[in-house]
UniProtKB/TrEMBL annotation:
Keywords: Membrane, Transmembrane, Transmembrane helix. This is DsbA family protein. Residues 12-21 have a biased composition (Low complexity). Residues 1-27 are annotated as: Disordered. It holds the Pfam family Thioredoxin_4. It comes from Streptacidiphilus cavernicola. Residues 82-226 form the Thioredoxin-like fold domain. InterPro entries: Thioredoxin-like_fold, Thioredoxin-like_sf. The chain crosses the membrane at residues 33-51.
Length: 273
């Protein structure tokens, strides 16, 4: 009988206290799971906010391309540190800039090979301002991205060779710019495409354009010359406005300036670099 009673008690359903304990255990587990889920959600929200802040910062802060030079780092230098600095102001959407590049390419290459000049390329967005659209801005930004990757010169040639009619704002399509990057070996990368898509150097192009307008040099293309120890206010306009120095005259004048350049910067002259 005792054994029988024992077996009966062992098989009996758990009492109210046992059931309540099980519910407490399950309730505790549920609360812990919910707490963990809430914490994960908070982490994702914070991560999203941080990402948004970073993206906004990139599109509102001046971010010059790597190795950018000149006052305020608005220019992309193509050469070393010779005695004469030539600055080319250009707009990738402007047909006159493409014509200038074709006309003066050989002369600029000759001066660079002679070690006489450092050439600064300044990207501006004048056609966007005059005709609307964003092709000048986007192409200028893409050139900054190409400079980051060490392919500025090659990509610039590609953009000028495939420049659309200025009425057709093809460069406003960032996909068109990244497609053209395939023509430059090693440029079409995830980093380059991300730089183009995010407009990483948009502020750099906009600020360069404002500075160019403030200088009242006229419409692009413009080519100026100064000695390395001079500031930009001392620059001489060789091409632009009513000044049209021929490629041959350009070579002669720049070589003469380089030959007569002082070996050291005069102490009374401000530095423009």
């Amino acid at each position: 009988m005792k054994r029988s009673v024992g077996k009966k008690n062992q098989n009996a359903a758990p009492g109210p206290d046992a059931a309540d304990g099980g519910m407490r255990k399950r309730g505790g587990s549920t609360r812990r799971w919910l707490s963990a889920a809430v914490m994960v959600a908070v982490v994702f929200v914070l991560a999203g906010l941080v990402g948004e802040v970073v993206r906004n910062h990139k599109t509102t802060q001046l971010t010059p391309p790597s190795a950018a030079g000149g006052p305020s780092s608005y220019a992309v230098p193509v050469s070393g540190k010779p005695p004469v600095t030539l600055t080319v102001y250009e707009d990738m959407r402007d047909p006159a800039s493409a014509a200038f590049a074709q006309t003066y390419a050989a002369a600029l290459a000759q001066l660079t090979a002679a070690g006489a000049v450092n050439i600064y390329y300044r990207e501006v967005a004048g056609v966007d301002a005059a005709k609307g659209g964003t092709g000048s801005l986007n192409a200028g930004n893409a050139l900054g991205c190409a400079q980051d990757a060490g392919h500025f010169t090659a990509y610039r040639k590609v953009l000028l060779a495939h420049q659309p009619d200025e009425q057709t704002d093809t460069f406003a399509d960032k996909a068109a710019l990244t497609k053209l990057a395939k023509k430059v070996k090693g440029l079409d990368t995830d980093v380059f495409r991300s730089c183009v898509d995010s407009g990483a150097h948009n502020v750099w192009v906009k600020d360069s354009s404002k500075d160019f307008d403030a200088a009242k040099l006229g419409a692009v293309p413009v080519l100026t010359m100064k000695m390395v120890y001079q500031d930009d206010t001392s620059a001489t306009t060789l091409v632009g406005g009513t000044t049209r120095t021929t490629p041959e005259q350009l070579v002669t004048e720049v070589l003469a300036a380089a030959k007569n350049a002082p070996t050291a910067s005069p102490s009374s002259s401000p530095s423009g670099n």
